[in-house]
Design goal:
alpha+beta, about 1000 residues, 39 strands
Length: about 1000
């Protein structure tokens, strides 16, 4: 077909056929009746009919399109349907006369009409977010279609098509005539020319075969996986099938993904990797993939402008216009070569490393031994507390280091903590692609290689044959355009005499490229190919060592026992914390919303100093005589009700609950213990015996010893009795167990439970429940144990102890976790009489529980909680956060309930608010998405469908808003 015919087709509006006329066609020629709905299309007119028993799509196109092309589409669908591993595809439905294609006149115009089966499923177009498995599945499906079309032949495949990327250049130039904005038109044309220059020299080496050429988010259908994520399993609209470049098929798919990418072009890489695994591409094809994606973006935006000029009421085109503009912006946001490196790396190949070994010295007067390297990463001793967040801290530390030796240098390839951004949903640019040198002003620099002087704004650039040196802070001796030989004077370091100056140096491998000074960690490897290390210019290795997170995880899995699980399948390597934030080795900041161990916040200086001071003097065990164990025990006793005045100090909550059981047995003379279903109390033999959570131990309900008697959990949200007035029913549910013990003449040792249902997400016990249960237990001589390990110690905000909410006083209180703020520390508080009962069985000893350091930790935590009003903050910030979370329940049906108070909250996800079917898989996926947005969150509860919200008590309102905003984003965009 000549170009003028092709360009004529690009100017055609959609067929002018109404829904009523489509219904008449369906009834007259296919004997179908039902509900009619128009479907979107750029140049065809499509209607879906629902007959009640089946659904079909009526496709109407102009006669300007060759019939043989429509026949090729039908044949391709039948070809793929015959392949057992193909995705779902529509099938042509013959008309009543047996023909696949009808030629009909409507309103005086001739059209070609076909009927196809309709594929149920959700397109991906309106999904703002696609998880990595969904992206990979789309790439893999594109590859599978290409593989299965490789042996397909049809004369209708040899066609001239505006979307054929082999013709992208001339088609774009034609379409751009419709773009009225001169600046926009020039920009698109410039981008297209640059892409075509990359493609054309390699075009003859690209494989040609039948390709679908439109496997996009709009032309696929998906089914939800177990977590609710859409996974593609079908493809529609074969209107662009053609004999074309194989790699162009993937380019079209990847371009469509860019409007889901949140501005990150690297988002496509899982699709590329998955495609390559199914249908390997050649190195030449990989080289042109990104330029083809850019070309596709140009065609899309130009075609949209042209089609709107022809058909301004086309809602399909209008609806996609914003997406296509976003695709163009993302596609043009990075250099073409950067994505080439990223694509090669994604499929396990490496592009050649930049050659820098021949570079000479930039500062020949500097001895390498005089250079002081300044660390600014996570492990830097110079970044203490939160000074990393202070403006200008890098230069201040650099100048301070320079005063010691005369010259100080920052490291290339370092993930700088000083560049992190707390409460940010985006990965910060922390990877240094440059080096800063602090040295005396006026210091002379020489050309480290032969080159030409250029100016890019404030940058002086020495352009060599294979590399460019970018300099900031240099008073260059030469005008732009001057050529220099290696070793020739280049300039002097700017600044006043007698003071230090700052020289920033950076390499670039491409002409005209101005690299950023910092890159995102996920982009760092690719950027380091375009902006390699300038260390050789100083004659000393100034490169930061790279993290070995995968290797460390492998070492952990090799030697750290597997039952000791870590959060996440691909966990970030966390090595530092400050207040409510944690930092990984790439400088990413995470909001810690799950760490109830870090009560006073991470890295508290008072706590660190107190531990240092005590450890430098004495740390031993509690059988020695020292003051702090008495002071701490006394202080804990003052926090408890009056009759609980005796303290045991232990190492953990498990040990505390285990000891509490032994005390109950000793004091009561009986062994039978009541506990609640869905509860968790620890991992020692005793504390595990009374733990019934099937999330922690799937065999919990069938492996309890005979002295453990689990009773119905008073879960007022999910249990058989619901609401605040359910206490009497839940108490009644306990009595049969008590009656059975009474009938056998067996005594009751006691009852243990969390005073707020922490393991179920902070569900409050129904008012009056513990009063009734405690009374029943005590009537039988049993001991009442309040497990406050997770929920007590000020975390509830409104109450210091959870049992205060119930208006009861237990016989034994167990605490741990937060009381040590990360140090192994727990306690049991009870009466003197109960404590003394244990002496009948011998003395008790815990090596580290009452050590001087442990006691100082406990005292300091309480001091900080008081001085910084952390319980009050838990109340106020917790109430604010709970209100924000409850508001999400008004918008998103998956939010079943918000439990808890203060900073012990639980957000329960359900698939149905009536049946309360747990959204277990969705909760896990939501936690993964939150991690990607910079929030650490984990599920809890027997069904693992509750977000366990228990951050450090120093959580700020700003961070609470960040968490709520991120969660709202996940629920709105998907996971």
């Amino acid at each position: 077909m000549p170009d003028d015919a092709l360009f004529h087709r690009t100017q055609l509006p959609r067929p002018d056929v109404t829904a009523e006329e489509a219904a008449a066609i369906l009834e007259s020629f296919y004997d179908l009746r039902g509900d009619i709905k128009e479907l979107g299309s750029q140049q065809d007119r499509n209607y879906r009919i629902d007959t009640g028993s089946a659904r079909y799509v009526l496709k109407i196109c102009r006669v300007d399109y060759a019939t043989v092309e429509l026949e090729a589409q039908n044949a391709a669908m039948r070809h793929l349907a015959a392949k057992p591993d193909s995705p779902r595809v529509p099938q042509p439905i013959p008309a009543s006369n047996g023909e696949d294609i009808l030629f009909l006149a409507v309103g005086g115009d001739e059209y070609q009409v076909r009927l196809l089966s309709y594929l149920d499923g959700e397109p991906l177009t309106r999904r703002k977010y696609l998880a990595e498995p969904a992206v990979a599945a789309l790439g893999a499906m594109t590859a599978r279609i290409a593989v299965n079309l490789a042996d397909f032949t049809h004369p209708g495949l040899d066609r001239d098509l505006q979307w054929d990327l082999r013709r992208a250049g001339p088609v774009a130039l034609h379409l751009l005539q419709a773009v009225t904005d001169q600046q926009a038109r020039d920009r698109i044309a410039k981008v297209m020319v640059a892409a075509v220059r990359r493609i054309q020299p390699l075009g003859d080496s690209l494989r040609i075969q039948p390709i679908h050429h439109d496997v996009t988010d709009d032309n696929v259908v998906s089914q939800p996986d177990a977590s609710g994520r859409p996974i593609v399993d079908g493809v529609i609209d074969f209107g662009d099938i053609v004999n074309g470049w194989l790699v162009a098929d993937l380019a079209v798919t990847c371009a469509a993904l860019l409007h889901h990418a949140d501005g990150d072009p690297f988002f496509i890489l899982p699709a590329v990797k998955a495609y390559h695994a199914v249908n390997p591409l050649t190195e030449t094809e990989l080289k042109v993939l990104w330029p083809l994606i850019v070309a596709r973006a140009c065609i899309l935006i130009a075609s949209t402008e042209q089609q709107l000029a022809i058909d301004p009421d086309n809602e399909y085109v209008i609806g996609n216009a914003a997406h296509e503009r976003e695709i163009f912006e993302v596609a043009t946001s990075v250099p073409l070569t950067l994505m080439e490196h990223a694509i090669f790396e994604a499929v396990g190949l490496q592009t050649p490393a930049p050659e820098t070994s021949s570079l000479g010295l930039l500062l020949p007067g500097v001895s390498p031994d005089a250079i002081r390297l300044l660390e600014l990463d996570l492990f830097s001793p110079h970044l203490a507390q939160d000074n990393w967040s202070r403006p200008g801290i890098e230069l201040k530390l650099l100048e301070s280091a320079a005063r010691e030796t005369g010259i100080a240098v920052t490291r290339y390839g370092e993930y700088r903590l000083s560049e992190t951004i707390p409460n940010s949903a985006s990965e910060p640019q922390t990877y240094a692609l440059h080096m800063d040198i602090c040295l005396p002003a006026g210091f002379q620099a020489a050309a480290p290689f032969a080159g030409r002087v250029e100016r890019y704004g404030e940058r002086t650039v020495l352009a060599g044959e294979t590399v460019r040196l970018h300099l900031l802070g240099l008073d260059c001796l030469h005008e732009a355009g001057m050529s220099l030989t290696e070793g020739e004077p280049l300039g002097t370091v700017e600044g006043s005499s007698g003071h230090f100056g700052l020289l920033r140096i950076q390499l670039a491998t491409e002409a005209g490229l101005v690299p950023p000074f910092f890159a995102r960690p996920s982009h760092a490897s690719a950027w380091s190919r375009l902006s390699p290390s300038p260390s050789r210019l100083l004659g000393v290795d100034c490169d930061a060592p790279q993290p070995k997170s995968a290797e460390i995880l492998e070492r952990r899995e090799s030697h750290f026992a597997r039952p000791q699980k870590n959060y996440y399948t691909r966990p970030p390597q966390i090595e530092r914390g400050w207040k409510q934030h944690m930092f990984d080795v790439t400088g990413r900041t995470y909001l810690d919303m799950v760490n109830n161990v870090a009560t006073v916040g991470h890295g508290h200086p008072r706590l660190a100093e107190a531990v240092y001071q005590q450890w430098s003097m004495l740390n031993t065990n509690s059988r020695f005589h020292y003051e702090v164990v008495a002071a701490f025990s006394e202080r804990l006793a003052r926090l408890a009700p009056d009759n609980l005045d005796t303290v045991f100090l232990v190492n953990s909550g498990s040990e505390a609950n285990d000891l509490a059981l032994r005390l109950a047995w000793a004091a009561s003379g009986a062994r039978n213990m009541l506990c609640l279903l869905e509860g968790y109390h620890g991992w020692t033999v005793g504390s595990d015996a009374v733990s019934t959570s099937i999330a922690d131990n799937p065999q919990a309900l069938t492996t309890r010893p005979d002295w453990v008697h689990p009773v119905m959990a008073p879960n007022t949200y999910r249990g058989p009795y619901r609401g605040p007035d359910s206490a009497a029913d839940y108490v009644a549910a306990v009595r049969p167990t008590l009656d059975a013990l009474d009938a056998k003449g067996e005594k009751l040792g006691g009852f243990i439970c969390e005073t707020v249902y922490g393991n179920a997400g902070g569900i409050a016990l129904p008012p009056g429940y513990l009063q009734e249960i405690y009374a029943e237990v005590r009537r039988r001589g049993g001991i009442c144990i309040a497990d406050e390990v997770q929920v007590g110690y000020g975390r509830l905000g409104h109450y210091f102890w959870g049992f205060d909410q119930q208006g009861v006083v237990p016989d034994i209180i167990t605490i741990a976790k937060g009381m040590g703020a990360g140090h192994p520390l727990g306690a049991v508080i009870t009466s003197r009489a109960i404590a003394d009962a244990l002496e009948k069985e011998g003395y008790f000893f815990s090596s580290a529980g009452g050590s001087p350091v442990s006691c100082v930790v406990g005292m300091t935590v309480l001091d900080i909680m008081t001085d910084e009003e952390l319980q009050e903050n838990a109340r106020d910030t917790g109430d604010y956060l709970k209100a924000r979370l409850e508001a999400l329940g008004q918008r998103f049906p998956i939010v079943g309930a918000v439990h808890g108070m203060g900073l012990y909250l639980g957000l329960e996800f359900v698939r149905d608010r009536q049946t309360l079917q747990p959204a277990t898989e969705e909760t896990a996926a939501i936690c993964d998405r939150l991690l990607a947005l910079g929030v650490i969150m984990q599920p809890t509860g027997d069904h693992l469908n509750v977000l366990k919200i228990k951050p450090p008590l120093c959580l700020t309102r700003e961070s609470a808003d960040f968490f709520a905003d991120c969660l709202a984003r996940v629920l709105e965009e998907g996971w």
